[in-house]
């Protein structure tokens, strides 16, 4: 029986092309997402508006999610995709403003707003990063 003509050569060419494509894809794939939290601790008084300030960057489209964790439990505040939809929890519907850089503003804070605020930024390629802001809320005397 004769071996198929050119089989070995085509395999090398196909393998080389596949390797080159994979290498090119790896060079173009984002190397992750970065997140900066300039003010990780916020002190506020009741009825104050606060800005939970962050700045993220990534090469792809990002999904941003904020959660609040306190002694009263965990609540998802908002989730949105950059340049796209915004899904604000009913509990926060009239009290949250979102910003393209990932920040949120929380209006008219109360004692129940004290706690940990977690942001998760996930890029479309699956890489994600996390940040935390601690908010202390004090009553007025």
Describe the fold and architecture.
This protein has one helix at residues 7-28, and strands at residues 34-36, 41-45, 50-52, 55-57, 62-70, 73-81, 86-88, 96-98, 104-106, 115-123, 128-138. It has 141 residues and is an alpha+beta fold. It folds into two domains: 1-29; 34-138, Sandwich (Immunoglobulin-like), CATH 2.60.40.10. A six-stranded mixed sheet has the order 2-11-10-5-6-7, with no helix packed on it. Strand 8 (96-98) and strand 9 (104-106) form a beta hairpin. It is globular, with a radius of gyration of 23 Å. The N and C termini lie far apart (97 Å). Keywords: Glycoprotein, Membrane, Signal, Transmembrane. Residues 1-26 form the signal peptide. This is V-set and transmembrane domain-containing protein 5. Residues 39-138 form the Immunoglobulin domain. It is found in: Membrane.
Task: Kindly summarize this structure in a few lines.
The chain has 141 residues and is α+β, with helices and mostly antiparallel strands. It is built from one helix and eleven strands, in the order H-E-E-E-E-E-E-E-E-E-E-E.
């Amino acid at each position: 029986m004769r071996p198929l003509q050119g089989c070995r050569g085509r395999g090398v060419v196909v393998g080389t092309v596949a390797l080159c494509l994979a290498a090119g894809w790896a060079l173009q794939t984002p190397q992750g997402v970065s997140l900066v939290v300039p003010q990780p601790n916020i002190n506020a008084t009741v009825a104050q508006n606060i800005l939970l300030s962050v700045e993220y960057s990534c090469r792809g489209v990002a999904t941003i999610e904020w959660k609040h964790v306190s002694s009263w439990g965990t609540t998802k505040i908002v989730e949105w995709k950059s340049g796209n939809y915004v899904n604000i929890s009913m509990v926060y519907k009239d009290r949250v403003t979102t910003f393209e850089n990932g920040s949120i503003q929380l209006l008219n804070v109360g004692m129940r707003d004290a706690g940990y605020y977690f942001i998760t930024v996930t890029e479309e390629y699956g890489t994600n990063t996390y940040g935390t802001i601690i908010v202390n809320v004090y009553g007025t005397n």
